[in-house]
Design goal:
The chain is α/β, with parallel strands linked by helices. It is built from 17 helices and eleven strands. It has a single domain, classed as Spore Coat Polysaccharide Biosynthesis Protein SpsA, Chain A (Alpha-Beta Complex), CATH 3.90.550.10. α5 links the parallel β2 and β3.
């Protein structure tokens, strides 16, 4: 009960919205300013209606007690029997990563033997489709976004497009209202209540959504023109009506810019073109991407939308949908995005993802139940859990392997055959996933890009240091990625 009281006592940021000149309301798309009560619901509905499902709580009392007990036990064992502690930790991590590598080997086989989704039938009934586009300080890319959304091959009278803006973001508001948009476009201004996060804006848009189906696009997105048609077809072919979301693959239109963007593109290709189709075939839930996921509006309503306090609201939402009995699927037409091309912005973006993975794991460990509890726990361990453990250990493990190989002629220190076999198996399966994903996604790469992944993977540890710091110091802070630069 104390945790429930804590959730209800959470304070939202106050402050009135900055004034918007009347000229903004006289041209372009329709502008709506929801009442502050509506924005307050968008910011706090989930953690008031289902507190244990929201990251707003932080660690609950049982979680704090469990962590303290585990830390005390491990510290005591380290002091009393350091060798036994090292052996136990080594065996645990070895078994965990061996299971993860085996799972990815199975995924690779399934992906190669999985047929692509069928194209939509011509003449099928098309429902009203709501497109939610959260924008914050994105005036530089707004014209390109407008062109990409206008090119979607879907009847305009069945589109309900909502640009979701913060009321204080005057530059983006000015650019958005100057667009020559039709009546199916609407601008929603969110007052400064609660965290300034993408999921809060999405909840504000969901409250006004008219569509039977709902999707999300980001500011830099270039979706395939037929993506909405394929998603509508997937829902129409759903026999039991329990398909809650389909994910379109994401890729990068600037993948060839430099080494970092090529690594990023191969990583995305392996995830969206290999891992997710195989997990769909296995009937497992998976972490959604932050854009180009297409929902039944009824499914979103049932799970109270997105969690504004989780900085990877997409990963969290996939598992909350599964816990309520909804299935996830994939479609083929991609969305192209802009990859971060410099290391420091990459670190900020990746640290937000890792922080959000930690938040999501913590949230779903509070109440590991639901319609697909076992499948959800296994999926989270093999996706978010593996990402977290790998990020924590990539750098140190790489240094250990390099030292063992380079110094063994002088020190006689040799890696255990089992450890070396695990490292080689992990690299082989990881490289094969990157190769298969790159081919399926049409990413241009060379064998040196695949081999270069051994230098890219340890960067996760660099980002994890910031993620852990931010988790304690500013858990709800959203690291903004600048686009169009």
């Amino acid at each position: 009960m104390k945790d429930l009281g804590k959730a209800r006592a959470l304070r939202r940021d106050g402050g009135a919205a900055l004034p918007v000149p009347d000229a903004f309301f006289r041209r372009g798309a329709q502008v709506r300013r929801p009442p502050r009560s509506a924005i307050a619901r968008a910011a706090g509905h989930l953690h008031h209606t289902d507190p244990l499902a929201s990251a707003a709580l932080g660690l609950t009392r049982p979680q704090r007690a469990a962590l303290l007990g585990a830390a005390t036990y491990l510290a005591g064992l380290t002091l009393l029997a350091p060798h036994a502690m090292a052996v136990m930790l080594h065996h645990f991590l070895w078994l965990f990563f061996a299971a993860s590598i085996l799972f990815r080997a199975i995924v690779l086989v399934l992906a190669v033997t999985t047929a692509p989704p069928k194209p939509p039938r011509p003449g099928a009934r098309l429902p009203v489709y709501t497109i939610l586009i959260p924008l914050y300080q994105e005036s530089a890319v707004l014209d390109d976004l407008f062109a990409a959304i206008s090119a979607l091959n879907y009847p305009k009278h069945k589109l309900d497009i909502k640009l979701l803006l913060e009321a204080g973001d005057r530059q983006t508001i000015s650019a958005a209202t100057a667009l020559q948009a039709g009546a199916h476009w609407e601008i929603i201004l969110a007052a400064k209540l609660g965290p300034t996060t993408k999921p809060k804006a999405l909840n504000a848009g969901l409250a006004r959504a008219r569509g039977e189906l709902v999707t999300i696009f980001d500011a830099e997105d270039r979706p395939h023109p037929d993506q909405l048609l394929h998603a509508a077809h997937a829902f129409a072919q759903d026999g039991d009506g329990r398909l809650g979301c389909v994910q379109a693959p994401l890729g990068y239109y600037n993948a060839g810019r430099n080494w970092l963007t090529r690594q990023f593109a191969l990583e995305y290709a392996a995830h969206f073109h290999v891992l997710l189709p195989a997990m769909t075939r296995l009937g497992l839930p998976f972490p959604l991407g932050g854009t180009s996921n297409h929902f039944r509006r009824s499914a979103l309503k049932q799970v109270h939308g997105w969690d504004p306090y989780n900085v990877t609201e997409d990963a969290d939402l996939g598992y909350r949908l599964s816990a309520k009995g909804w299935r996830l699927g994939v479609i083929a037409p991609p969305t192209m995005e802009e990859a971060v091309s410099r290391l420091r912005p990459w670190k900020r973006q990746r640290s937000r993802w890792l922080k959000g993975y930690l938040q999501t794991l913590g949230v779903h460990m509070r109440r590991p139940a639901g319609c697909n509890a076992l499948a959800g726990a296994f999926s989270m361990a093999m996706t978010l859990g593996t990402s977290v453990f790998a990020a924590l250990g990539h750098a140190s493990f790489s240094i250990l392997i390099a030292a063992g190989l380079l110094l063994s002629p002088w020190t006689g220190m040799m890696l255990r055959p089992a450890d070396m076999a695990l490292a080689l198996a992990g690299f082989a399966i990881g490289g094969a996933l990157l190769h298969a994903g790159g081919q399926r996604a049409g990413v241009r790469f060379t064998v040196w890009d695949i081999l270069g992944a051994v230098l890219y993977w340890p960067l996760q540890s660099w980002a994890m240091t910031k993620a852990v710091h931010d988790l304690f110091k500013r858990p709800f802070h959203w690291e903004k990625t600048q686009h169009g630069q």
